[in-house]
Amino acid sequence: MLVTLTSDWNLQDYYAGSLKGAIRSRCPGVEIVDISHQIRSFDIVQCAFVLRHAFAHFPPGSIHLIAVQCEPQPLVPMVIVYARDHYFVGLNDGRFSLLFDDPPAEAFALPVPVGPYSFASLLLFTRAVAAIVEGRVESETKSCVLQTESPGRPVYSASEIVGRVVYIDSYGNAITNISRALFIKVCQGRAFEIFVRGTFARLEGIVGGYDEVADGQMLALFNSVGCLEIAINKANLAQLESMDTHSEIRIKFYERKR
What we know:
eight-stranded antiparallel β-sheet, seven-stranded mixed β-sheet
């Protein structure tokens, strides 16, 4: 069985190595794959974005450990969630609403360890993987309701879409929560302008690739996961335009056709 690990644990620390060793000692047959250990500290939104667009490329039945803000509390236990033919393990704090558009209603909670623990997730992630691999999820856990929250989604009307940046990649490109499907639904072939950080910059078209604009020029495109991405060809947009997650992106549509 395959286990993936997504965390904000810098690899210079011992956390990831300790967890991998504990899992392999308990379940020698599993394979452990790193998705990312460069999630910004405590940023569960970034973590969910990365895992959301990565897990489907792994085989069905894979186990995905969400190791960002992963220390349990009495009212916020570690849970096992089965969705999309995959297993997910993380805190029951609403994060699965960021991972799925329609998260399942049921989860399976692992008992919170008794006594002081500074790294309880080491124990619980290992127990979760063992319970799944050995087919003991129902006997080792307690069924519970999966907590949900309302993730920020684009707001739109007939004349505009207002979204936000949800992820900045390692090149400084800004990925938004505006999907290709939503854009097509609202646009209907009309002319439009994309406003980046209010009226500081604007774009009047969407290109198919970076090579369609000159070096240093700002562009908008729909990326490989179908999200609107704002970038500067061969430059770091986030640094040059002081953009970060939550920066507003507004698309204004006009009645004239393109």
